[in-house]
Amino acid sequence: MNALQIFKHGLKSSLRKPGSIFATILILVVPVMYPLFWLQAFWNPYANIGNLPVAFVNEDSGVYGAGLEQQLRNSIDVKWSFPGRKSADSGLKDKTYYAVFVIPENFSQSISNVRTANIETYVNGKNNFMATLLASQIEKRLEEQISAQIVQNVTGKLPGGDMVAAFAANPIEGKQIDINPVANTGTGFAPYFSSLALWIGALLISLVLGRRVDKSKLLSPDGVNLTLGRFLLFACAGLVQAVLLTAIIYALRIDVQSGLLTLAALAVSALTSIALVSTLISIFGMFGQMLSMFLLIFQLTASGGTFPTELTQGGLFIALHPFVPFTYSLNALRETISGVPPDGNVLVRSLAVQIAVLTGALIICAAVETFRGRGQTKLSGRELILPQGNS
C-alpha cells in the first residue's frame, strides 16, 4: 500500500463509527480550549485590579493617616475596605483581603520630628503569590501620596509653592517607548499558549488516530509509505487545530498584524509538533509518550514563553533555549501577532528551523519503520521455513 492508501484507510477508520467520530472531534477541539479559556479569563488582569479586596487600617493619632484615608475612600484603584485591626487580620487569613495596609500610631509624629515613617503592609503569600506582588506596587503608591502631601505642607506657603510641591514630589518622570507594543496580557501570552495547545494536540492525535492506522490490516506497507501515510492523517488533524486556533485568536479580538502569516506559523508549529511526537511514539512506544511529555516540560521553561530564559536558575535552560522547537514557534507567532511590521528575517528563520526539524523527524521515523519491516520479513520467512524442515 502506498502513502495515500494508508491515509485513506486511517481516515475511514476515524469516521466509520459514531464513537470514532466523537473521539476525533474531541482531540481536535479539547487542546485549543485551553488557550481560549485562559486568554479570555486573564485577558487584562491589571484592568480589573479595582476588584482586588484590600484593607486599610489607620491607627495614626495625627493628620497624615487621616488625610491618606480620606484620599483612599475616594479612590477606585483597588477595592478598599476600612475595618478595625482585628477584623483586618482575620480577613487576611481567610482571603477576605489579599493585603492589609496599616498606618501605625506614631506615623504623623515621626514625620513631624523629621524621622522616617513606616507603612506596614501585611500579605499572605499562601493565598495568592501574585497578590503579594501587587501589594508591593500599591504600597509604593501610598508612599508617593504621603510624600506629595508632606511636600505640599512644607512648600505650600512659599511663593509658587504649588509648583515647587509638584516638582519636589515628582522631579523625574520616566517615559517608556515600546517599539512593538502588546495591548494586554492575552495578546502577550497568545503565542505561548497556542504552541502549548498544538503540542498537546499532537500528543492526542498520535495516541488516538495512531490506532486507526492498524499495521495488521495494511497490505505490506514499506517504512516510507507507512510514515508518510500516517503523517498525512495526523497532519490533517493538526491543520484543523491550527485553523481553530486562528479563529479563536480573532474571536478574542487579538490585534493580529497578519492573519495569513499567523495561520501559516500555527500550521508549521502544528506539523512540527506532530512529526516529533509521532516519531517518538512510533519508535519508543509508551516510553515515547513519556518522552513527549518530558520534552514539553523542558520546552515550557527553556523557550522563554513566560519569563526570559536569562532569569532561570543555572545555565541549563539558557543552553537548551536554541534547541527546543517552542523557541522558534514562539518567535514566529510573536512576529505575526505583534511585529510592527513582522521581522522577515526572524520569521523565515523560525519557520525554516521548524520545517528542518519536521523533515528530520520524518526521515528518522521512516528509516526505523523500514528497518523494522525488513526484520519482520526475515522473521516471517524463517517461520515459514522451519515447519517445512521438520516435516
Automatic annotation (TrEMBL):
GO cellular component, one term: membrane
Primary location class: membrane
ABC-2 type transporter transmembrane domain: residues covered: 24-360
Pfam families listed in its UniProt record: ABC2_membrane_3
Transmembrane segment boundaries: 21-43, 189-210, 231-252, 258-277, 284-302, 351-371
Subcellular location: Membrane
Membrane topology: Multi-pass membrane protein
InterPro entries: ABC2_TM, Phage_infect_YhgE_C, Phage_infect_YhgE_N, T7SS_ABC-Transporter
Swiss-Prot/TrEMBL keywords: Membrane, Transmembrane, Transmembrane helix
Signal sequence, renumbered to the chain: none
One GO MF term: ABC-type transporter activity
Protein name as annotated: Phage infection protein
High-level lineage: Bacteria, Pseudomonadati, Spirochaetota, Spirochaetia, Spirochaetales
